[in-house]
Amino acid sequence: MAEDSAEPKKERDGWDKAEIVLKPVGGLFTAIAVAVLGFWTSNYVRSREVREAALRERLQTRDTNARLYSELTSRREESESALRKDMFKSIIDSFLRTGQSTPEQEVLNLELLVYNFHESLNLKPLFRHIQRRVKDSPQRSEYLGRLNRVAGEVTKKQMLVISEGGTSFDATANLKTLSFRGPGGDVPSLAKDLVLDGIRRNFKLEVLDSDPKSEGLELRVTVRTGEGGRVETTSTEFWLDYFDFPMIDNTRLPHDQRFAVVLNNFDAAGGSADFTLAFFPGKYTGLREKPYYDEVLTKLLSEGERRAPTSTPDPTRK
């Protein structure tokens, strides 16, 4: 009876056999997957550490190079300042020395002074002094030519700098009639509109007098600016010659702007003079020109307003 009551033994099918075979294989695959994942993770971490170390090294190298460049630049500026200081003192002492100097020495010293310090000093009195000194020299024409040539070169250099941020126009004056030459004939005055940084100004030129001996002419410049429904007028009179440099000899206008007039050519025989009026920002003036504090404050406030983000109105608010 016991043997009859025992259940018959179940035969294993293909799935059971597959389970027996795949169980150890699955464990092997799991172990391999864990090993591969661990290897990939550790490799990724090492690669990231290497990249971060390389990035830190590059940043440190860049900071080191920046400090080194800053130190070298600072030392170079200090050495150049010391050299310019010694040069300036030596040249000025040569003019103030009590001993008699030759016109050749004075012209040479002036050339050295102008080429190195034309953006810092008003050298017109020195030009005039040497011009008077060489008038009785046998080489008078040579020295005067050198003076005019160095003045012309400095004027061109400064006008190139000014033209980067400013605007200008040319004019030709008839010295015999004290008028301006135009396509339709001579006119008593010349007026032009120039725009700079959104500000439009009208410049009116008038010739008041001329001096063929000193190769100069007297001008009146009237500047009219329309702002806020009113017109502001500024008028100035001055003598113009080859020794007026625009970065030094200029007229201040509101909103830290300047204008200057430079003489390009004075033809005493032909009775004409060519000159240029330049209208430019105050930042292009020489080192001796400093902006007023109210102009600096106004500029900073205006720049802050332009950079401030505009708030979006809330449509739910009334």
Number of strands: 10
Rounded to an integer, what's the Rg over CA atoms? 40 Å
The mean pLDDT is 81
- Sheet/helix structural class: alpha+beta
Spatial order of strands in the largest sheet: 3-2-1-10-9-8
What pattern of helices and strands is seen along the backbone?
Answer: HHHHHEEEEEEEEEEH
Strand content: 25-35%
Morphology call: elongated
In terms of quaternary structure, the protein is single chain
Identify low-pLDDT runs: none
Largest sheet: 6 strands, antiparallel
Q: How many DSSP helices? A: 6
N/C terminus separation: 100 Å
Helix content: 40-55%
Describe the structure.
This protein is an alpha+beta fold and 318 residues long. It has a domain at 103-291. The protein has helices at residues 2-5, 14-96, 103-117, 124-133, 140-163, 293-307, and strands spanning 167-174, 179-182, 185-187, 190-196, 199-211, 216-227, 230-240, 251-253, 257-267, 272-281. Helix 2 (14-96) runs antiparallel to helix 3, helix 3 (103-117) runs antiparallel to helix 4 (124-133) and helix 3 (103-117) packs parallel to helix 5 (140-163). It is elongated.
